[in-house]
Structures are given as C-alpha cells and as structure tokens.
Amino acid sequence: MYQLNFVRRHRWIYLRFTLLGLAIVWFFFALQLIFVLKKFQPEFAVVPSLLGFCIGVLLASVVALREEVKQRNLLFRAVADFAQEFTYFRRIDGHYEYVSPACKQLTGFAPAAFYQQPNFMDQLIHPDDREPWKKHVHRMHTEGLPEVLRIRILNSQGEVRWISHLCSDVSDDRGKVIGVRSTNLDVTEQVLYEQRLQRLADYDPLTDLPNRRMLIQTIEELVHDGENVHKFAVLFLDLDHFKHLNDTHGHTFGDELLIALAARLREYRTGEIMVSRFGGDEFVIVVPNIESVVDAAKCAKEILKQLEHPFAIRNQRFFITGSIGVSLCPHDSNQPEELIKNADVAMYRAKLDGRATIGFYSRDLVQNAADFLDIETRLRDALDKNDLRLHYQPRIRLSDGMMVGVEALARWQNGDEWISPARFIPVAEESGLIDRLTEQLLRQAAIQSLRWPNLHISFNLSGRQILRRDLCDWIHGIIRQVGASPDQFELEVTEGILMNAKQDAATHLNTFKQMGYRVALDDFGTGFSSLSYLRDLPFDVIKLDGSFVRGMHDNAKDGAIVRAVATLCREAGMELVAEGIETEQQLATVSALGVGEGQGYLLARPMPASDLDELVRQGKLITTL
Ligand code: C2E
Ligand code: CA
Ligand code: CA
C-alpha cells in the first residue's frame, strides 16, 4: 500500500518538475526572442528545450529524494512509535537521536527527558545493577556484538522494573561507530513469576527456609568444589514431642511454632551456615569449615541454645526441646543423601540416650535406629495386650529402717527378654505411646494402692506429659475411676522436664497439690539442679540421683553438697531421698549426712507386688539398719 502510493507520487513529481523546468527555460527563451532576436527559428528551440528538460529532471530528483527521506522517516516512526518496546538511538556522544514514546510506560519519563539529558538511561539503572550495566556498555563499545541483558531500572516513581535490554552499536559507511540502538521490554511480571516458581521449587512455603532440594544441592556444591576437600558438618535437628504438641494444640499452632523456630534459626545463621527445613519438625543445618567433632558439638550446642528461651505463641509461652544428630564430611561420607541419613541416624541415638541431646554418627548407630523401630512395634503390641507390669521398689526411712513407700517402676517381659524402661520409655515418648503406657500402669498402681492403704506409691511422669494441658484432670480421672485416694500417691517429675517447661510444670504441680497428691523432684543433681526449682515449685520430696550417691566417695565436695541439700530440705520442709544406695558405705554416709530416706538395691530391689506382699507379711521389710 505504502509502496504503491510512493511510486505514484514519484511519477507525479517528475512530470510536474519536468514541465516546470521546460516552462521556466521556455519563458526565458521567449523573452530572448521577443526582446533580443526578434525573430523565431525552430532550431533555436532545441537547446532551451533540452536545458529546460534537464533542469526539470534535476529539480524533480532533488524533491523526490527529500520526499522519500521524509516518507521513510515517517514510516520508521509509524512503526517504532507504535511498538510496545521502548526503543532508542543514542549517538556516541550520549545524545539521544530517537526515543520511542513507549519509554513513558516503561520508565515513567517522557521522551523529552531523554532528549534533554545525554546518557539518561544510565541514571535509571538500579544501583545494585550498575556494575553489570557498566560492563555491558563497555563490551558494546569494544566488541560491538548485540547483547541482551536482564536488568533492573528504577522508574520515575522509584519502583523497580525489570527490563530485557537488547542493544547493538550502529556504524557509518566507513565502519565508524556513530551510536547505539536499543530496544527494551518490560519483563517485570515474567521475572517475578519466575522468581516465585524458583522459590517454590527451592524453599519451604511455611517457614521460607530452603527446602530439601536446595539442601542437597548446597551439600553437593560443597562436596564437589573443585579440587578442595571441604570439611563440613551436617546437623539434623528434630524437635522432641512435636507430634504430641500438634495433637493437643492443633496443627495451626504447631505451624506457628515452626515458623517462630525458623525465624530464630534464621537469626542464628551466620556466615555460610545454611538452615533448611527437611520436613515436619526436622531441620537440617549445614555448617562449613568444621574441622573436628568438638567444633561440630559446639555448633550443635549453640543451636540447641536457641531453643532454650520460650516461644510466645498466641500469648502463651512455650518451651520446646530438640535433639541433634551430627555427621561429618568427609569422615562419615561425601554423598549428600548419605550425610543427611547419617545425621538422622545420629539424631535417633541422641533421642534414645535419655538425657543426651546431641549424637554423632558412627557405623553402629544404624543398628540403634533399627532397634528403635523394632521396640516401637513390639511395644505397641505389648500395650494392645496389656502386657506391661509394675514392680515396686521400697523406700526406707533411714533413721529406723521402716518402709515408708514404694516407687512403681515399669517392667516389660517380651518373650524371654526383659526390656529395660531406660530403653522403652524414650521410645514410648517419641512414638506417642507414652500416654497409653502411663494410663495402663497408673491404673495398675491405683488398683494396687487399694490393697496397701498405708503405703505411699510414687509414680513417674514422663517429660512429654507435662506438655498436656489436661495432665492433672487426666491423671486424677484414672485414680478416681479406680476409687483410689490421691493422698496415697506421689508424682515424680525429673529435673530435665523443668529445664524445658518450668512454667507448665509449676501450674500442674500446684493443681496436683490442691487435688491432694504429693509431688517429688526426681533425679536431682543430674541436670541444672537449680535452686530456683526448689524455691519456686511446691515439691514435697527431693530425690537425689543415684549417680550422685555413687560418686560421693570419690569426691570430698560431694559430701558437703549432700549435707547442704539435706539441711536445705529439712529447713524448707521437704523430704530428701537418696537413690541408688548399693553399698553399706554409701548407706552409712548418706545417713550420717542427714538424708532422711533411701532407696537402692542394698535396701530392696524393685519387685512384683506379690513378692512385696509376702515380705511385708513376714515383716522383712523393716531393714536392720
Ligand atoms: P528412676 O525414676 O530414677 O527410677 C529409679 C531407677 O533406679 C530404676 O530403674 C531402679 O530400678 C533403679 N535403681 C533402684 N535402686 C538402684 C540401685 O541401687 N542401683 C542402681 N544402679 N539402680 C537402682 P529402672 O526401673 O530401670 O527405671 C529406669 C527409669 O525409667 C526410671 O528412673 C524412670 O525414669 C523410668 N521409668 C520407669 N518406670 C517408669 C514409668 O512407669 N513411667 C515413666 N514415665 N518412666 C518410668
Ligand atoms: Ca523416679
Ligand atoms: Ca530417679
């Protein structure tokens, strides 16, 4: 369409200007005839006609050329102005020769802003992208190859926009660079979409921490970093009793806790440490430049320290604890998947090992993890069949050897094998079977208490039960259901529990006391043994841990401490029980130090209720002290 129009115009221009040329020359020729020659001869007309024709053609060519340039210019603008891309041509001195109107939409600035300021585009580049931009401009001028660059600009409102910037230089006929041409497309939406996709692929949507995929990729990069052998640790953090928390408070609550924990871990992360969420309540932390097991242990401790302060969720203070398993590269493996698996196995050991919260990988750990699963399966079966029993270990008043009570201890015989509570209680806690176990055993103890109306029965509560909001009502319900009396029961909680949930423990213990139960602090001396526990919590009884009693003879200070604790308990109206008395010497020492009561193999072993009945009947349980 445009082409046809153009040709028709050309013909018309040539015709017009040829006639014009002829007319002008003929006009002067006519004047010459009239005023100079005064006579006409036809051959005189040849030269003026040719001359007129040539002048006409010449004029026509000039005008046609100008018209063509104008038309082409218009055509270029018609296309460039209409394009969505922001296009420009910048001379080598920085001045803009052409800027398409689309620049307004992309940059917020009208073309005039570009025309007025040389190199205006440079000013729009995002500060963080200036370096790559400078390099790009430099490459353009040195190499002269077209280049596409994705870069951020700040528009007139100060907003960040992503552009796809295509650019190449323009040379004249002699090959001299005279400027730069460029088209720019707004790709902000696309980039944001890609970033969102990338984030979904690499990050956990709940906590916004790197996910398993990115974790493995990071470990892979660390392992295969050229020639260097990197030493680093993989720490597998698993929260204790998280499932229980989810069950009692709901999953949204659990989610909020995970988010809060992730924020805390993120804060802790320094340098190149990577914190990722592996799944559920599991977090994997990769710590580069770890030279030794000691370094790794320090780091794991630091992380556990992050959990020590309570989490505030829905105006409630909440304590959580966790266990960490550690594997080291290249010592334990140099394969990402295997390093994580090994750290996981090590974490299992941390959980199995009652009080330890940090475990290290070694080959035999694989066996421990398998054990855990095996015990869980068999324990479930035992609970279904109500196979667990209680044995009772007498507690003796040291002044006269009288039995004042018994401690109920879980016993499980699986086939010919006796499985120790030290093995199955942690499994029950972690697998969520502990509530069923407690319920079955407490019922047995309550029934037994009816047969021993004059004996106190101490019953152990597990750490995770302190997290139950309904703990007191639940325990009380079982006791009442059987028709037993609360004042015959003493509930033992360990120091370990208090470390993690002192506030909850305080509430529960006070309620128990109001309901008529006695409460005892178990394993005193093994944890932090904080005096504030004794001051702030309403304990009737303190049980000094067996390990403490055992160590007493090797360490002179221990004697002084036991004496001090005995005095403290007496003055504060609490009973002190020494656990794990195995020798006459230990018995003599604790008695001499003023400890009121004792428990241990020397005095009496844990035994089935029937054996105890028999002993009591024979009057044998009043020991000869
Ligand atoms: P614990 O509460 O400190 O119980 C005392 C442990 O010391 C018992 O181990 C007992 O058999 C043992 N013991 C008593 N006298 C001596 C002694 O003279 N020397 C030595 N070396 N040990 C002595 P047991 O029965 O193996 O129980 C281990 C732990 O398992 C208990 O420690 C308690 O924390 C837990 N446990 C036992 N039964 C239950 C239960 O029904 N529920 C809960 N939640 N935990 C329980
Ligand atoms: Ca106990
Ligand atoms: Ca104990």
How is this structure best described in words?
There is one protein chain. This protein has 625 residues and is an alpha/beta fold. It has four domains: 6-80; 83-192, Beta-Lactamase (2-Layer Sandwich); 203-374, Alpha-Beta Plaits (2-Layer Sandwich); 386-618, TIM Barrel (Alpha-Beta Barrel), CATH 3.20.20. It has 22 helices and 21 strands. The strands form four sheets. An eight-stranded mixed barrel has the order 13-14-16-17-18-19-20-21, surrounded by four helices. A five-stranded antiparallel beta sheet has the order 2-1-5-4-3, sandwiched between helices. Helix 1 (2-37) runs antiparallel to helix 2 (46-80), helix 9 crosses helix 10 (251-268) and helix 13 (365-384) crosses helix 14. It starts with a helix and ends in an 8-residue tail after the last helix. Ligand C2E binds at residues 393, 409-410, 420-422, 425, 441, 460-462, 522-523, 546, 580-582, 599-601, 606.
Q: What's the short story on this structure?
A:
The protein is an alpha/beta fold.
- CATH level-1 class of the largest domain: Alpha Beta
Strand order of the largest sheet: 13-14-16-17-18-19-20-21
* Alpha-carbon distance between the two ends: 123 Å
* Class by alpha and beta content: alpha/beta
Features:
625 residues, alpha/beta, Beta-Lactamase, Alpha-Beta Plaits, 4 domains, eight-stranded mixed barrel, five-stranded antiparallel sheet, 21 strands, 50% helix, rod-shaped, binds ligand C2E, binds calcium ion
